[in-house]
């Protein structure tokens, strides 16, 4: 259905088995996420050939993307526990798969590296925080809404 949507209609799932996640049951939502900020960075090569009279040409030759999240630490939630558990790991242990379902029904499936940036903290009267990034690893698969 066309129109505008509230941000909470976006659904993010993480592969709880790391890069071995393949079946739908391997993917779980991450409880208590409050904000997300996607970013796409394009690699653009520019050149100025003689036949364009000084006007530059350009071509998108690569892309990278990431999604940063901020939320609360929810011990006992499978997705939240999986992300928090990667804070002290490195290498391939931080590689997994993720899915982003947009409010329109479109879906982005991608391999990623989980970078936990804040494994907890806040004021003494706050709920413990959890912040992390999903950094795209390779080309994602975008499926348009039906």
From TrEMBL:
Highest taxon of source: Bacteria
The species this protein was found in: Proteiniclasticum aestuarii
Protein name: Uncharacterized protein
């Amino acid at each position: 259905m066309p129109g505008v949507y509230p941000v909470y209609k976006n659904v993010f799932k993480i592969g709880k088995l790391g890069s071995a996640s393949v079946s739908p049951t391997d993917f779980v939502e991450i409880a208590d996420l409050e904000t997300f900020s996607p970013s796409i960075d394009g690699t653009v090569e520019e050149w100025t050939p003689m036949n364009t009279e000084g006007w530059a040409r350009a071509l998108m030759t690569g892309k990278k993307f990431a999604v940063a999240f901020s939320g609360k630490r929810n011990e006992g939630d499978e997705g939240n526990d999986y992300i928090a558990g990667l804070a002290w790991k490195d290498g391939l242990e931080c590689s997994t798969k993720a899915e982003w379902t947009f409010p329109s029904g479109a879906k982005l499936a991608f391999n990623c590296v989980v970078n936990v940036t804040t494994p907890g903290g806040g004021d003494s009267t706050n709920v413990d925080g959890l912040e992390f990034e999903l950094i795209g690893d390779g080309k994602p698969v975008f499926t348009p809404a039906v």
